[in-house]
Amino acid sequence: MKWSTVRMGWRNLGRNRKRTLLAVGAIALGQFTLVFVNSLMAGFFLDALETVTGPMVGHVQMYHADWREERAVDLYLDNLAERRAALAAIPELEKASPRIYTAVLAASGERTDEPADADPGFIVGVDVSLEQQRGGLLERLDDTQIPGSGEVALGRVLATRLGVTEGQLLAIIGQDVDGFPVDDLFMVKAVIDSNVDLVRSMGIVMPIADAGELLMMPDHAHELIIHGQDFREADTLRAAIADTMDLDGMAALTWREAAPEIVRFIDMKDWFDFIFLSIVFVAAAAGIANTAMMSTFERRHEFGMLLAVGARPRRVVGMVLVESVILGLIGVVVGSVVGATVVWITSHTGINYAALGGSDVEAFAYGDYSIPLFIYPRFELRHIVYGLVAVSGTSVVASLWPAALAARLEPMEAMRT
Amino acid sequence: MTATTDEVLVKAQNVTKVYHTDEVATHALRGITTEVTAGEFLAIVGPSGSGKTTLLNLIGALDAVTDGHLEVMGHNVARMSKRQRADMRLNQLGFVFQAYNLFPVLTAQENVEFVLELQGVTDNRTERAREALDQLGLLDFADRRPTQMSGGQQQRVAVARAIASRPRLVLADEPSANLDGENARILLDMMHELNEQAGITFVFSTHDPRVIAYARRVITLVDGKIDTDVVKEREAMAEQT
User: Fold this and answer.
1) Euclidean distance between the first and final Cα of chain A, in Å?
2) Nearest residue in chain A measured CA to CA from B83
3) B109-132 confidence digits (pLDDT tens)
4) Which residues on chain B are in Cβ contact (under 8 Å) with A305?
5) Residues of A with CB below 8 A from B101's CB?
6) Domain architecture of chain B: domains with CATH
């Protein structure tokens, strides 16, 4: 490609600025839509993905073979310390976080003249130091919210139902692992939100030692939430676990197996990406084809003159193509800059989808996942690259016909127009 | 004065051109037979519709003869491929059009350089372009775009573009048609000088008496036929110009 062709293409775009601006605007709008909407989707779906592969089921989940179906308190993994030590020897493993779950009744533990209303809750006993790490259940809490011994972090929905706030006492009544009634009082350290619906709606999160003591199940856990270095390597991690220990009587499921409905939900993102990429493609094609056609018909005389002085048809084709590609690239750059800026701003401020729809609902549940309606878009460079490739390809395709028409002109015939 | 040589650049034998529009056949040229030799400064004159531009277009390999034989630079134009004709236009012919036909987005220098680039000239392209502009007295306008120049200046750029590629033959279609008297005179002086000094052959169509006065040979067309073909004496030329 000759530099002069690029220079002429660039300058030719300035000859009809209104039309050029209109075409650039159409392309930029398409690219903006691609970048912004896909970032919005990425924020939405990646949040789900991070929740599933983080605090919800980890990369691999281990439990008693019947736990998943029955959720009975006595279906636990025993010899927890021994199992954790064995798991720690696996190079691919980052952490194995044990959890205890059991349903209880909870009520305010504050002294009142009236009997307190009790509501169903769910004890989630966790290793607080592990759960504070990346991908843990308590990752989003600051140090002042982390429950210590005798303390709990209470899910916001349950706290609201019980009328309990931070610093107050919570009474818990339940059954231990042998079916005997147990009860105790805990200090509410924090009222928390979580994308794990169980925690947000019913969760009573406490140190696993407290849960074990209350439910008479020391060195036991209902689940081991296991994280490797990369959630995409979950199958490898599970194979390594199977090589390390006897899984007889236990189940070890990857995140895809443990939460299939949410995985299908997340996989929808690829379709959204495709749909918006198609929109950009169509918008760019329409803008560029229209501009290239108009420009070619207006400049028949000029192309004729070019051919008259001896230019080869391919030179004419090159001029038309270059103009279209430059036009497309300007549109992509403008759309990308505007899109990235809006994404950057909203990735900090968030977008309250529920409020936009006039609702004050903060989240809704799908499976065990609490879908937040306050979305933080996430910028991904590939969205710009997709647009760039789509528009560049579209520019060439959309201008091929006008370029071919220009190249086939007979010099004298064209110069008469 | 540059003497013409015996080298024949254009040889037309009984050339006919008929345009067909719907069912109407228009005879633009009817049996033209003539030759153009190197170094000539030839005017093709005649009233509108007489076939001047058609003859130039045929010589410039921009159009095809309907009948007869036309040789340009020793090549039978009818037998040349589209690509060969384009190559001949690029490397051996120069064109000056009535409406200047400069690229509006390029400066004067870029317009001249562009043809050199098409020719594949890489060395001294800029120098050659500036030299051509200098010959036409346009060096100060090198960085101006066509819209920033007068008609006369634009036509001189067109001539600079035509001669920069060092053609053997320059075809000029009504070069002074859009120029006032002064600009026409300047342009013709320069074309005449290029013919005299550089030996470039000029063939131009015109019905402008000012242009005809400069020509050493004048072919008059009437209704697509050669009416007269006159070679002026040097004395007569001096008197006229």
Assistant:
1) 28
2) A312
3) 999 999 999 998 888 899 999 999
4) 97, 101
5) 301, 305, 415
6) 40-61+81-240 (3.40.50.300)
